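Aim 2 progress. For Glycine zipper domain-containing protein, the working sequence is reproduced below.
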Amino acid sequence: MATIVVGRFDTFEQAGDAARRLYARRFGTDDVSVFFLNPAGQHARFPIGGDMHADPGARPGGFGAILGLVAGLIVGGAIGVTIYRFGMPWWPIPIIAAFVGGYGGALAGALSRMRSRRAKAQTYDARDAGVIVAARVTSQTPESAMTVLRNAGANDIQHTEGVWEDGEWRDFSPLAPAQPSRSPTAKEPDL
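Predicted C-alpha cells for this construct:
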C-alpha cells in the first residue's frame, strides 16, 4: 500500500499547474497521476451502466406497492360488485375491476413511498466530478504535496492509502467517500 495525497480541480489547466508544481518539488512522473472523475451515476460500474445495483430511493417502493395492491384490490372489487349488482350483471366485472384497482393501487403505493425518500437518496455518490491529481508520497512529503495542491486551488484534499502501480492509483473508487485531510496551513514558496 502506498500513501497518496489527492486533490480535485475544476479544470485540466488547474490540475496541470498543480502537477508541474509537484514536479518542481521533486515528485517524479511515476509519482503523480492526473485523471478525470465522471459525475455521479456515470461511472459504469455495472455492464448496463450506472454506479449502483439499485437506486436507494426505490427501496421503499416494494412495500408501498404491496400496500397499494391490497387497497386497490379491495376498492376495485367493491366498485366491481356495485356495478355488477346495480348496473351490468356480467360476472367478470368484479374480477376485472379488482385487477384494475390492484394495478392502480400498486403503482400509486410504490410511487408515493419513493417520493418521500427521494431527497435522501440523491446523496449516494461520495465524490464530486472533476479533475483529480493524485500524488504518491513518502513519509517525509505528504505535507509538501498537500500544500502544493491547496495553493494550486484544489478542492477536497485528502490523504489516503491505496495501490499505486505504473504511475497510477489502481484501486481508486469513485464511490468511496472522500476523507478530508487535516492539512498544514503553511504557504508554498514561489518557485
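The domain at 2-52+132-169 is CATH 3.30.70.790 (Alpha-Beta Plaits). This observation will guide construct design in the next reporting period.
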